[in-house]
Design brief:
Elements lengths: L2 E12 L10 H5 L5 E4 L5 E14 L3 E5 L6 H9 L6 E7 L2 E3 L13 H11 L4 H15 L14 H12 L6 E5 L7 H17 L2 E5 L3 H7 L2 E6 L2 E6 L1 H8 L7
Parallel strand pairs: 4-8, 4-9, 6-7, 7-8
Antiparallel strand pairs: 1-3, 1-5, 2-3, 9-10
Helix pairs in contact: 3-4, 3-5, 4-5
Length: 251
């Protein structure tokens, strides 16, 4: 069983050397992103998320929409543990897996095989667990003898295939994504799509930030629309998406 419960959650991000940035402060205050203010110590902060309250349970497939700077990435980072709430409470139950940055931890001087161990360790797997599945990872990546060559000798497509193959080996209870992953290589696309679909099917809760209406319509059963770090709408795709994309006017 997995669970995500936010109660009036806000995230403030301090801006250092703010005195040198005052020239554009007025413009920033009306920008798409969070609101600028000051904390109790007088430091300039950006409120990236403001008073979020929602409850996610098993079976929820949530698409997060909003213009650039609306708070989508901050929400994903909060869910993954990169950020902590400045105020409010965030209750998260269940193992979390993130496909936000699949190349995190990759070392260009290490071999493909060594990078499998590095990346998998960051995903929380033990060496024994990696040993059991490393052959499957190598086979899926289609790298052949290149698996023992330094990553700096790889093409961008080969690099992506390796990162994808390692990052999608886990089956978390809560899966976080920032857009649907595109692997680039034409011949690799079909089985990569199948693996992603399998991950989504297996996970208890999916949270995916996306600008794609079709993706959210086909993948999600719920949509969170963020605007200026707040929830503008929360409902079914056929309720939220027509308003967000301007088919109908919100009242």
């Amino acid at each position: 069983m997995a669970l995500i419960e936010f109660k009036d959650v806000s995230v403030d991000i301090p801006i250092y050397n703010a005195s040198t940035r005052s020239l554009k402060k007025r413009l920033l205050q009306v920008a798409t992103g969070g609101q600028i203010g000051a904390d109790a110590q007088g430091r300039v902060v950006v409120r990236a998320l403001d008073g979020l309250s929602f409850h996610l349970k098993d079976g929820d497939r949530v698409g997060v929409v909003g213009h650039n700077g609306a708070g989508k990435s901050t929400l994903l980072r909060l869910l993954s543990g990169v950020y902590a709430p400045t105020s409010g409470s965030a209750r998260i139950e269940g193992e979390i897996g993130s496909l936000i940055d699949i190349s995190l931890g990759i070392d260009s001087e290490a071999s493909g095989r060594e990078n499998i161990y590095l990346r998998a360790a960051l995903l929380g797997l033990t060496k024994a667990e990696i040993n059991k599945c490393i052959d499957d990872i190598i086979e899926f990546s289609e790298l052949g003898d290149f698996i023992d060559m330094p990553l700096r000798t790889y093409s961008s497509g080969m690099h992506l295939r390796l990162a994808f193959s390692v990052s999608t080996m886990v089956r978390p209870e809560i899966l976080l994504m920032d857009e649907w992953l595109a692997v680039g290589d034409q011949g690799f696309t079909h089985k990569a799509e199948a693996r992603l679909a399998e991950m989504v099917q297996a996970t208890n809760i999916l949270v995916i930030a996306s600008h794609s209406r079709d993706l959210i319509n086909t993948t999600c059963n719920r949509v969170l629309w963020l605007e200026h770090g707040k929830v503008r709408m929360d409902g079914k795709p056929d309720e939220v998406l027509p308003v967000y994309f301007g088919d109908i006017v919100a009242h």
